[in-house]
C-alpha cells in the first residue's frame, strides 16, 4: 500500500494513463498464465497419459517385475535361478484389479482370486503346485455365492453345490474322478425338488421327477 501511495503522489501521469498501464500489466499476466497452462497441459498428440506404476510387495532376495500385453498388466517378483516367487497381481488396461495370487519357487500356491469390473470377487480357491485343490467358489456379480466345487489335485472330487441368486439351493451332488457320481438333486427356485438323478461316470442312470407319472419320468 505504501508503494502505491508514493506513485500517486509523485507520478505525473494522468488517471487515463495509469488505467492503461494497469490494463497492460493485467494483459501480460493473463498471457503468462495461458502460456504456463499450455506448457503444463498434456499435448494434443493423441498419446494416452502414462499408466500409474503398479507393484507388489516382494519378499527378500527377489526383484520386482512387470509384464504388459494388450489386455492385462501383471506385477510379480522373481527369485534368481528359480523364477516367480511371491505375490502376483493382474490389472486390466483401466488399472482395475482383475486377479491376485502367490507363487512359491516358480509354482502357483495358496489362495487365488479373480475379480469383476465392479471389484467384487468372481472366483476364489486354492492352488497347490499350480493345480486346484479344495473348495473353489464362484460368485454372482453382486458378491453372492453362486457355486462351490471341490477339487483334488486339479480334478473335481467330492461335493458340488449351486445356488440361485436369492440364496436358494439350486443343485447338489458329488464328483468322482472329475465325473458326476451318485445321486444329484435339482431344486426349483421355490425350494421344491425338480429332479433327482443317479449318475455314474458322468452319465444319467436313473432319474426321478416328483409330480410326474412313471411313464413321464425319464
Rounded mean pLDDT is 81
Q: Regarding CATH, which class of the largest domain?
A: Mainly Beta
State the CATH architecture of the largest domain.
Single Sheet
- What is the CATH topology classification name of the largest domain? Histone H3 K4-specific methyltransferase SET7/9 N-terminal domain
Instruction: Please identify which CATH superfamily of the largest domain we are dealing with.
Output: Histone H3 K4-specific methyltransferase SET7/9 N-terminal domain
Number of domains: 2
Question: Mind explaining what this structure looks like?
Answer:
There is one protein chain. With 218 residues, the protein is α+β, with helices and mostly antiparallel strands. 16% of the residues lie in helices and 49% in strands. The protein has 2 domains: 52-108, no CATH class; 120-218, Histone H3 K4-specific methyltransferase SET7/9 N-terminal domain. Strands 1, 2, 3, 4, 5, 6, 7, 8, 9, 10, 11, 12, 13 and 14 form a 14-stranded antiparallel β-sheet that branches. Strand 12 and strand 13 form a beta hairpin. The longest helix has 26 residues, at 15-40. The termini are far apart.
Defining traits:
single chain, 218 residues, Histone H3 K4-specific methyltransferase SET7/9 N-terminal domain, 14-stranded antiparallel beta sheet, 16% helix, disordered C terminus
Amino acid at each position: 500500500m505504501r508503494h502505491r501511495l508514493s506513485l500517486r503522489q509523485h507520478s505525473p501521469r494522468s488517471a487515463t494513463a495509469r488505467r492503461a498501464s494497469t490494463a497492460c500489466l493485467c494483459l501480460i499476466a493473463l498471457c503468462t498464465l495461458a502460456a504456463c497452462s499450455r506448457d503444463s497441459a498434456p499435448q494434443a498428440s493423441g498419446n494416452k497419459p502414462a499408466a500409474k506404476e503398479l507393484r507388489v510387495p516382494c519378499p527378500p532376495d527377489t526383484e520386482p517385475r512387470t509384464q504388459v500385453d494388450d489386455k492385462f498388466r501383471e506385477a510379480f517378483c522373481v527369485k534368481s535361478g528359480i523364477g516367480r516367487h511371491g505375490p502376483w497381481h493382474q490389472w486390466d488396461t483401466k488399472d482395475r484389479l482383475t486377479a491376485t495370487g502367490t507363487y512359491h519357487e516358480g509354482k502357483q500356491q495358496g489362495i487365488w482370486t479373480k475379480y469383476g469390473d465392479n471389484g467384487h470377487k468372481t472366483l476364489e480357491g486354492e492352488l497347490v503346485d499350480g493345480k486346484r485343490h479344495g473348495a473353489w467358489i464362484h460368485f454372482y456379480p453382486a458378491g453372492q455365492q453362486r457355486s462351490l466345487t471341490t477339487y483334488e489335485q486339479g480334478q473335481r472330487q467330492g461335493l458340488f453345490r449351486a445356488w440361485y441368486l436369492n440364496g436358494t439351493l439350486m443343485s447338489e451332488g458329488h464328483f468322482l474322478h472329475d465325473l458326476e457320481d451318485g445321486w444329484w438333486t435339482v431344486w426349483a427356485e421355490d425350494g421344491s425338488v425338480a429332479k433327482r438323478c443317479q449318475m455314474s461316470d458322468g452319465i444319467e442312470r436313473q432319474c426321478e421327477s416328483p409330480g410326474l407319472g412313471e411313464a413321464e419320468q425319464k
